[in-house]
C-alpha cells in the first residue's frame, strides 16, 4: 500500500504514555503484549515506541479478551487466522478484478466487431 493511501489510523505517531492513558493499560502490560507479538509498534533510532490508532484498537480488543480469560497464545492464534483470512480475501478480490477486466475487454472487442 502506498504511504499516501494509508489511513491516518495506520500511522504510528502515538507515544506509549498516551496509549496507556487512552487504553487504561499499564506500560508494563503494553510492553508485555509487544513481547508476546500481539502488537508491533514502530521504534525509532532511539528505541522510542510509536503506536497507531489501529494499535490502540487492537490493544483494547486484547484487554477485553484477557478480561474474559483468554490466554495470549490463543489471542495470537486468532490474530494470525484473521490475517490469513484477510490475505485470502485480498487475493480473491484481485482475481475478481482481473477477471472483470478480462470480461470487460472481451465485451468491448465483441461490440466493436458488430
Automatic annotation (TrEMBL):
Gene3D superfamilies: 1.10.1660.10. Coiled coil: none annotated. It holds the Pfam family MerR_1. Keywords: DNA-binding, Repressor, Transcription, Transcription regulation. This is DNA-binding transcriptional MerR regulator. It comes from Metabacillus malikii. Residues 81-114 are annotated as: Disordered. Residues 13-81 form the HTH merR-type domain. Residues 81-96 have a biased composition (Basic and acidic residues). GO terms for molecular function: DNA binding.
Amino acid at each position: 500500500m502506498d504511504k499516501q493511501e494509508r489511513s491516518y489510523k495506520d500511522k504510528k505517531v502515538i507515544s506509549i504514555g498516551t496509549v496507556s492513558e487512552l487504553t487504561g493499560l499499564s506500560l508494563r502490560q503494553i510492553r508485555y503484549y509487544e513481547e508476546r507479538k500481539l502488537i508491533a509498534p514502530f521504534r525509532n533510532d532511539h528505541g522510542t515506541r510509536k503506536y497507531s490508532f489501529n494499535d490502540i484498537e487492537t490493544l483494547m480488543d486484547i484487554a477485553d479478551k484477557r478480561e474474559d480469560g483468554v490466554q495470549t497464545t490463543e489471542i495470537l492464534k486468532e490474530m494470525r487466522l484473521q490475517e490469513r483470512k484477510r490475505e485470502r480475501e485480498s487475493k480473491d478480490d484481485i482475481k475478481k478484478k482481473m477477471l472483470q477486466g478480462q470480461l470487460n475487454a472481451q465485451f468491448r472487442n465483441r461490440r466493436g466487431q458488430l
